[in-house]
Write a structure and sequence with these properties.
Elements lengths: L17 H17 L5 H8 L2 H13 L6 H30 L7 H10 L9 H19 L5 H21 L5 H8 L2 H19 L7 H22 L12 H13 L8 H27 L4 H39 L1
Helix pairs in contact: 1-2, 1-3, 1-12, 1-13, 2-10, 3-9, 3-11, 4-6, 6-9, 7-9, 10-11, 12-13
């Protein structure tokens, strides 16, 4: 095996299923961030860390097994297939909802190809960015040394933070800064993914800090996120842009690394099996719930919970149905 085929070292640790439980919690944050409710804006400084933390957790989990170019390419192909099917599905949803097909513009096509923006289903940017991150890392491992990431990641993270400052000072409240930086595989995907990987590698997959410190950091950065929102307000922020996103993501990783679950439990199974599909399906559920839940104070508080439950049920049906179909196909192939 080529030395460059291995990412940084061969330090493989026992899987901690706590991070699968964290994936479910992050899926909950994403749902509560997107569903209109009485408390949506109040939670925004905290829920906005959901997707960046997903990248960080993915980086952490990647290193429970040896990481090679082959594995990165295989993972990128798996995510691309999910992206393709999801994009096809939401293209049909767009057609059904609007009565006409979506005709991509030249700008929209360029944005999709180079900065992972999906114009007819905005939440799919995460999957596209994930594919690009894995491909970019595979390229680095194949043609350079993985240790170059220790230099690249801080620079990309600095651009992220600089764009945050510029966004507020220049009163950039619209989409370009959002698309170019805060939903970008380059300035969000790679830094957060690799930072999660660095934390795992430098600690051998063990606790980063003592549990009480992780709890303290989480509380402190949640309060700072709320304070930031109070200072700048939603008029000076879009929901993806907060200074506290980076430290809050770190605090969550630090906190959950201090727990160790060696066996799957209910929440870790939900995180492992369903968190991605909750993310994919919840935008489909939101308008259905909005149109069916009573327009009163009770409905305003319950909508995120209902969307979460419906997305979880739909995800379990999809995963179970997919497994059943594959099992039937495999049995038929075996009998042949």
């Amino acid at each position: 095996m080529d030395n460059n085929d291995v990412i940084i070292d061969n330090n493989i640790s026992e899987r901690n299923y706590t991070f699968d439980a964290l994936k479910f919690i992050l899926a909950v944050l994403v749902v509560f961030r997107h569903v209109p409710s009485e408390y949506q804006m109040n939670l925004m400084p905290v829920t906005t860390c959901g997707v960046p933390a997903f990248f960080m957790v993915s980086g952490w989990l990647m290193y429970y097994r040896e990481v090679t170019v082959k594995r990165l390419l295989k993972s990128s192909w798996r995510i691309f297939k999910i992206l393709f099917l999801s994009a096809l599905f939401y293209y049909m949803v767009y057609w059904f909802q609007h009565g006409h097909i979506h005709e991509p513009s030249i700008q929209g096509t360029v944005f999709f190809l180079f900065i992972n923006d999906v114009s007819f289903a905005g939440h799919l940017w995460y999957l596209a960015a994930y594919v690009y991150v894995l491909l970019a890392l595979a390229f680095i491992y194949k043609h350079s040394t993985p240790k170059i990431l220790y230099w690249i990641v801080p620079l990309l993270a600095a651009v992220y933070l600089a764009a945050d400052i510029y966004y507020i000072l220049a009163d950039m409240r619209h989409t370009l800064t959002l698309v170019y930086v805060f939903r970008s595989w380059l300035f969000t995907g790679i830094p957060f993914f690799c930072f999660g990987a660095f934390l795992h590698l430098n600690n051998g997959g063990k606790a980063i800090v003592k549990r009480w410190i992780g709890m303290l950091l989480t509380v402190v950065f949640v309060l700072l996120a709320i304070a930031e929102f109070a200072i700048f307000g939603f008029t000076d922020h879009i929901s993806d842009v907060y200074f506290t996103t980076w430290p809050l993501c770190f605090a969550l990783i630090a906190l959950f690394s201090s727990f160790h679950i060696g066996k799957n439990n209910l929440f870790s199974k939900w995180g492992e099996k369903y968190s991605l599909y909750i993310y994919l399906f919840h935008p489909l559920i939101i308008p259905m719930v909005k149109n069916s839940v009573p327009d009163n104070i009770v409905g305003a508080y319950l909508q995120p919970v209902i969307v979460l439950f419906a997305s979880l049920v739909l995800s379990s049906i999809y995963v179970g149905g997919k497994g059943l179909v594959l099992s039937i196909i495999n049995n038929n192939n075996h009998n042949c």
